[in-house]
Amino acid sequence: MAVSEEECSSAKPGPSSYPSTKPYYLSKCVLRGSAVLQVLYAHIRSPSSNDVVFGKETSIELVFIGEDGIVQSVCDQPVFGIIKDLAILPWNAKLTWDPQMWGKDLLIALSDSGKLSFLTFCNEMHRFFPVTHVQLSSPGNTRDLPGRMLAVDSSGCFVAASAYEDRLALFSVSGIGSDIIDERIMYPSESEGTASISTSNHRSTLSGTIWSMCFISQDSRQANKEHNPILAVVLNRRGKLHNDLLLLEWNIKACTISVISQFVEAEAGPLAHNIVEVPNSHGLAFLFRAGDALLMDLRDACNPCCVYRTNLNFLPNAMEEQTYVEDSCKLQDVDDERFNAAACALLELRDYDPMCIDNDNAGTNPSYKYVCSWSWEPENNKDPRMILSVNTGEFFMIEILYESDGLKVSISECLYKGLPCKELLWVKGGYIAALIEMGDGMVLKLEDGRLCYANPIQNITPILDMAVLDYHDEKHDQVFACSGVAPEGSLRIIRSGISTRILSVGLSFTDVTDSVGFQPNVCTLACGLFSDGLLVQIHKSTVMLCLPTKGAHAEGISMSSPICTSWSPDNVTINLGAVGHNFIVVSTSNPCFLFILGVRLLSAYHYEIYELHHLGLQNELSCISIPRQKTEQKQPNSSSSANNRSTSSLVSGVDINKTFVIGTHKPSVEVLSCAPDGVTVVACGTISLTDTMGTTLSGCVPEAVQLVFVDKYYVLAGLRNGMLLRFEWPTRSSSLPLTVVNTACSTNLVNSVPNAFDRRNDLPSVLQLIAIRRIGPSTHVTPVCSVEFPKGILFVAENSLHLVEMVHSKRLNAQKFPLEGTLRKILYHNESRMLLVLRTELNYGTCSSDICFVDPTSGSVLSSFRLEPGETGKSMEIVRVGSEQALGTVTLTTFARGRLLVLCLDHVQNSDSGSMTLCSKAGSSSLRTSPFHEIVAYAPEQLSGSSLGSSPDGIKLDENKVWQFRLAYTNTWQGMVLAICPYLDRYFLASAGNTFYVCGFPNDNPQRVRKFAQGRTRFLVTSLTVHFTRIAVGDCRDGVLFYSYHEGSYSYRLPADDALQGGNRPKTNIDSLQNTIIASTLLGSMMIFIPLSREEYELLEAVQARLAVHHLTAPILGNDNNEFRSRENPVGAPKILDNDMLTQFLELTSMQQQVILSTEPPEMVKSSLKSLLPPHVPVNQGKLLWSPSNAVMEFGSELHRHDSRALIAVFSEG
Fold first, then answer.
1. Beta sheet of 768-774, edge-to-edge order
2. Quick one: what percent of the chain has pLDDT higher than 70?
3. pLDDT-based confidence at 378, cuts 50/70/90?
4. Are the CB atoms for 1080 and 466 separated by under 8 Å?
5. Which spans of this chain does the record mark as coiled coil (predicted)?
6. Tally of CA atoms within 13 A in the half-sphere of 772 that contains its CB
7. What is the pLDDT of residue 381?
8. 1026: Cβ–Cβ under 8 A, 6 or more apart, which residues?
9. Rounded to two decimals, what is the model's pTM?
10. How many whole angstroms separate alpha carbon 1098 and alpha carbon 24?
11. What pLDDT was estimated at residue 1062?
């Protein structure tokens, strides 16, 4: 029997209803949202950079579009808030600016912090920082206070911020440092607000919803601050079907704002929805309406008029020109009935939620064309041109012509046909970035009067469902996601790692050892190219120089066998070596010596290896590295000469081409330079790391060192404990030399050859340790550059030699397989290693929904089961029938009833009869030929070679068998059937209306389904989830009820599970995906919630509290991080820690980290926090936190240990 809800709700929970311990979690975003809501073009990084800004609600991504049209990401920065709108404040030479921001544009943001934020990009920190904040309202989402929409004057002198309705604010920009705003005014003012609302029917008030606004530029001959700014506003008044165009003037001297005019024609014509200023026109603007576009002359703001009308419904030829002289003129070409239809359509569109994928009218074509998005041609000061996208997916170009007889508007033929775009951006080079709301965007190229597809802009919005494939610590974890909606529905495979193209398939490595002359039976310590045609092999007893034959290389010597010569040290064994351009470095141990060798030509094909320098060492070496010879490269801009100067030498008088780096067992890293007259120690850095308790870390001996150049020279050192260190040279000034240190602080070189050790007064320099990161054990890797592989990488992994080529970095490492329709549900079937996908909105005649097997390696649909005409699949789950598995599916036929289906998954012999499908009609299980070209078996002619007979983990599948569906049971239930869920391995749950049932299979017979119990809720059941014995029932009112089943009855209980009472709280050492929550969002983001111990949580909470208030790491939009994360949370619930906030700690220098950790925490968390650093911890320490379970934590960064947290590293690398 079922216990009624009233009886259950009246029961008082006992003490055991609550868990004895609180769960603690760390939230890590493994895939940032890909839905671009705003797109902007500006000089963000420098006065000459052409940067694109993507606003993505919770993050800001800075990208650029290269010469090849590929969008490449510069940074993707979380903002720890919700972005409402973004705009660019252009740099203005007439205003006073901070010298550091000279020539750079600023980014303006409105957010739920209630502040107007001005942001600048810091190239050194590689992120945005706030210049200043202006408080507009309290945090949160208010309708009647500014914080919804932005508009910026083209000169950069004025900014407008509007509320959703009834109010806006104007600001005057001074451009002086943090005091960037010198004047501000609210309209209506606080005193006028109540009066304005009470007289909302008055035509001259700002009462209603603000749809669009823009500034109208004035005469450029006037000084920027000598005129009163004019703001055009499209306003929807309450209860009205039309929108008004109002012109507002800010009288700066009188400190007042007033409505000075209203465009009357906007009332009589179609519904106006956007007002857009024409750049460099001084008073012209486009008013976009349903079905047309009006070119407005607003130079006389008191008498606005339309000078040209373009009819969008008859593009591209039907255009009308009308001149309006008086305000009383009306547009007579649209009758009232047609206007009402258009107005209702646009109003319905405005109420339409783009993320509501279940809207039945989402795919319908409205009767009127309207402009969805637009973008002006950059830096066109003569005849402005605009690319626009209309709601039918067509792209057109509009050009304004200044002719002798007046203004003309020219509109092109259709340039491209695709999907309607949410945002367009025209950038230099003729590229247009087109962003789509629920599908991949694209970069289009304007060529010969046409738009041509160039490259995609990945967007996996929305993620409707996902399946996580866990390979049990085999490092192959990946996520299969249902992405997009019809017609852009697709299967996305989200993997870890960098984006690479594997070239080893079909490419053979040829063994040419005998033709080169290397010794094959020795342990080679190092090898490399000494100079053209000369190869060097170093092993434990000998350094060998070889001249390969033409059998090894086309430019080899013309002899039958290679020519070799060798050098060996006296009575010692070589333990390390490195080959550079024109010199060789080897070292020995016990005794410790360093040999620098050269090669000279004695006669044709005969060379000699000789000693340049022979040095004794105080400490044994652990690694040697010689930088690659510097080659002249073409620089992209005028800064090439400066770059060449900066890379020509490390310090004055030191040649980079004669430099090498060593790591010692001291431990330390040192940079040395050799010359004919001696060896110079250029720089040295001692390695000494401790944890937060002051204990010295072991394994700090460097195993690999490299000298690299990015913006300047750095020394990278990889340690045995898996940590990567970055050193830099000390900051030098124009008047001070480099720091002089006592050579006792570095590894002493004991000179055994007179004058071999050159000591300079200004050397060696002390290297500064500026960054530490744990990356895990590394392996051998070297770059490869050839005609076939210009960006090749050769590396050793898992006892194999791999050759890969680096390709352009993708913004999202998500492989796409386009599938028809909208993918609603996805499951991974372990036995078949296939994906089960539930699709809707198909165009298969009368069939609009099906379930299909999909090959995860190729995206091919192998077999499908089609639902009845008019039937829509809602949910499916794999359920157990005895020892077998079946697929339980619920469908919706009408709003009053639905069906429950049980499908058996059969592995049958491949009939090789072509593409086949199953029909879902009750009582029929026959196979029918499919006309839709779906693959039912592994047909070689229809599958690529890479996917034939393969599986995600590389196991070959049986090509002679195929998986198919067999209908075993079907039954129609009354009520909306929306949810199904497996339960306790032998039952399943299914809902119909406001009732849900516990069902099973009597005698393990899939053709019989029995209802064992039922439960009722007050509202419609929309979801069912289980955890152990607990059943969570979600309803249409966002309520959650909890039940448990006891062999014939339900009991309604509070949200606590009995299994949690036995001390099974979340632990640090989790087993793969167990205890880890993975969640996705409609905006395309994906995150994991990692359980922490209480000790770990408290320690990281202390760090997060300090980071949230420090100026280098605080939320850039001005949010109070504690208030932002606590909104709508139950009182007393522990907040989930934010990995994005904590990861910032790793991007700081050691001194900055020390400053943050030594600051006082906020008052609200002082009582529960402990000191993070003991007094004896050195300044450059405090990088690592050790958990009680000995699992190294870097605040949620990449963890590569083979322990319970391997999943974090797997997902974070993507």
1. 702-709, 713-719, 723-728, 768-774
2. 70
3. very high
4. yes
5. none
6. 25
7. 76
8. 981, 982, 983, 984, 989, 1032
9. 0.70
10. 9
11. 35
| Burial of 523 per CB tally in 10 Å (0-12, 13-18, 19+) | exposed
Contacts by residues 554-562 (CB-CB < 8 Å, ≥ 24 positions apart): 556/515, 557/533, 557/605, 559/605, 561/517, 562/515, 562/516, 562/517
| pLDDT classification of 662: cutoffs 50, 70, 90 | very high
Contact 1188, 1200 (CB under 8 A): no
Give the model's pLDDT for residue 827. Answer: 94
Block residue for tokens 């060449």 = 644
Q: Which of 242, 259, 263 is nearest to 327 (CA)?
A: 263
pLDDT of 64 over the 70 cut: yes
What is the amino acid identity at position 652? S
The C-alpha atoms of residue 661 and residue 722 are separated, in whole angstroms, by 19
898 contact partners, CB below 8 Å, separation of at least 6 = 874, 890, 891, 892, 972, 973, 975, 976, 977, 978, 992
Residues found in the chain: 1214
What CA–CA distance (Å, rounded) separates 977 from 1026? Answer: 18
The candidate with the shortest Cα–Cα distance to 357, out of 31, 817, 821, is: 821
What values do phi and psi take at 869, rounded to 5?
-55, 135
- In the Cβ-directed half-sphere of 608, how many Cα atoms lie within 13 Å? 7
Inter-residue contact 116 to 103 (CB < 8 Å): no
The least confident of 636-645, 820-829, 1104-1113 is 636-645
User: Which pair of structure tokens corresponds to residue 583?
Assistant: 């010199």
Q: How many helices (H) and strands (E) does the chain have?
A: 12, 80
Strand duo 861-866 + 927-929: pairing = unpaired
How large is the average pLDDT for residues 592-618? Answer: 91
- HSE-CB of 784 using CA atoms within 13 angstroms: 15
pLDDT digits over 857-891, tens only?
888 999 999 999 889 999 999 998 988 888 888 78
pLDDT tens across 8-43, in order? 333 333 333 334 467 888 998 888 889 999 999 999
- pLDDT score of 412: 92
Instruction: Look over the chain and give the mean of its residue pLDDT values, rounded to a whole number.
Output: 76
Residue identified by tokens 């739920």 is 112
d(CA 36, CA 443): 14
Residue 257 bridge partners (DSSP)? 250
Unique residue bearing structure tokens 């810091």:
122
Question: Is pLDDT of 214 > 90?
Answer: yes
- pLDDT value at position 762? 58
Helix (H, G, I), strand (E, B) or coil at 658: helix
Q: Are 769 and 1180 in contact (CB under 8 A)?
A: yes
**Cα gap 1184→1174, rounded to integer Å:** 14
In contact, 1124 and 1135? CB cutoff 8 Å: no
Least Cα distance to 607 among 512, 543, 539, 690 occurs for 543
Helix (H) or strand (E) holding 1157: helix 1150-1158
Please measure the distance between the N-terminal and C-terminal CA atoms of the chain and give it in whole angstroms. 50
Name the amino acid, one letter, at 147.
G
CA-atom Rg of the chain in angstroms: 35
The average pLDDT across 1022-1026 equals 92
Closest Cα partner for 105 from 95, 114, 115?
Answer: 95
Closest residue by Cα to residue 396 from 351, 451, 332: 451
Is 524 in a helix, a strand, or coil? strand
- Check pLDDT > 90 for residue 242: no
DSSP secondary structure letters along 322-364: ----STT----SS-HHHHHHHHHHHHHHHH--TT-TT-TTTTP
DSSP SS3 for 99: helix
The strand pairing partners of 769, in sequence order, are 727
Q: What is the greatest pairwise CA distance in the chain?
A: 107
